[in-house]
């Protein structure tokens, strides 16, 4: 009996859905709560090739909701992309899994698309700047993708096809969930439900060649689900899906970006990973960590610095320079 027998017996998916899924290359950007949960479901369901994109390491604060990682991953400072790849291949050795331990930016997103030719993308990020990139790249390259966001007890999911309204069209409708989980918190079931709904849309598309075209929002505190016809929000003057102005793809990554949870991303020359005179308290081949009374700083091998303790982007840049150029 096929290991996929139970899902193939489900009429809405069937042998057609299974056949399409088994041949599909699916790129998942962001391997936190959403991306890792979606990846696990798709690995078990027999997705042909999963391309896992994330530049972060596993942290202890991830473990309550990111069920594919464990304490050993956190204590060893494992890269999420690599840790998840090994986890998925233990679940299903018949599929192909590629780990891409890179930050998704305008400099690499189209290169990765031309390298792996994904037929679908899943949004597992928690930043709108990255979602704008995904939206524009997917529209330009005719790749359907699935937006997902969650915060507290609320989740939002919508499948975005290049023939329908895009993220830019929907922006006025999508609640700003998922923007700062370190402050508002996130309940594990909400993250898993959001990822499950994203995977349900993958299976809809594999079986029928289309999404449900519903914008789904839910709140587990009151067990309320709402759905809205996404097509109703098409913007006849949308710069992306109507006028094909892909400005985010042409812009270089910002030197400093404010992140979720009072953190700042500052980009520095990659040589500083080996050349900085700062006395780091923790080091691995991928990152170095420093902490004092005022700041916490993680320096990654690709030149990214995550700083906690700064008040704004300007002071973040100044602080990073003062610390790393000692
Ligand atoms: Zn649009």
TrEMBL record:
InterPro entries the record matches: ThiF/MoeB/HesA, ThiF_NAD_FAD-bd, Ubiquitin-activating_enz
Residue stretches making up the THIF-type NAD/FAD binding fold domain: 4-239
SUPFAM superfamilies: Activating enzymes of the ubiquitin-like proteins (SSF69572)
Pfam families with a match to the protein in the record: ThiF (PF00899)
Top-level taxon of origin: Bacteria
Name the UniProt record assigns to this protein: Thiamine/molybdopterin biosynthesis protein
Source organism (scientific name): Macrococcus equipercicus
């Amino acid at each position: 009996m096929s290991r996929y027998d139970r899902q193939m017996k489900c009429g809405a998916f069937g042998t057609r859905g299974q056949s399409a899924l088994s041949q599909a290359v699916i790129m998942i950007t962001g391997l936190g709560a959403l991306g890792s949960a979606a990846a696990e479901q798709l690995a078990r369901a027999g997705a042909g090739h999963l391309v896992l994109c994330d530049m972060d390491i596993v942290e202890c604060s991830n473990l309550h909701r990111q069920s594919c990682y464990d304490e050993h991953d956190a204590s060893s400072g494992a890269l999420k992309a690599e840790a998840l790849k090994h986890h998925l291949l233990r679940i299903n050795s018949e599929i192909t899994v590629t780990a891409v331990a890179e930050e998704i930016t305008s400099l690499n997103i189209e290169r990765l698309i031309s390298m792996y030719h994904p037929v679908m993308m899943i949004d597992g990020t928690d930043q709108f700047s990255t979602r704008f990139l995904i939206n524009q790249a997917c529209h330009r390259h005719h790749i359907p993708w699935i937006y997902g966001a969650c915060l507290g007890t609320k989740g939002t999911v919508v499948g975005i096809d290049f023939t329908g309204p895009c993220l830019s069209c929907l922006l006025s409708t999508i609640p700003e969930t998922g923007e700062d989980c370190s402050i508002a918190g996130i309940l594990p079931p909400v993250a898993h439900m959001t990822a499950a709904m994203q995977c349900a849309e993958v299976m809809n598309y594999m079986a029928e060649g289309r999404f449900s075209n519903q914008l789904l929002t839910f709140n587990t505190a009151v067990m309320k689900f709402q759905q809205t016809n996404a097509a109703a929000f098409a913007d006849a003057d949308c710069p992306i899906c109507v006028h094909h102005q892909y400005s985010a793809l042409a812009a270089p990554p910002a030197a400093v970006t404010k992140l979720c949870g009072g953190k700042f991303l500052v980009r520095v020359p990659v040589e500083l990973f080996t050349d900085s005179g700062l006395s780091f308290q923790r080091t691995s081949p991928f990152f170095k960590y420093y902490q004092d009374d005022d700041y916490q700083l993680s320096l990654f091998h690709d030149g990214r610095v995550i700083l906690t303790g700064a008040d704004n982007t300007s002071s973040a840049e100044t602080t990073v320079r003062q610390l790393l150029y000692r």
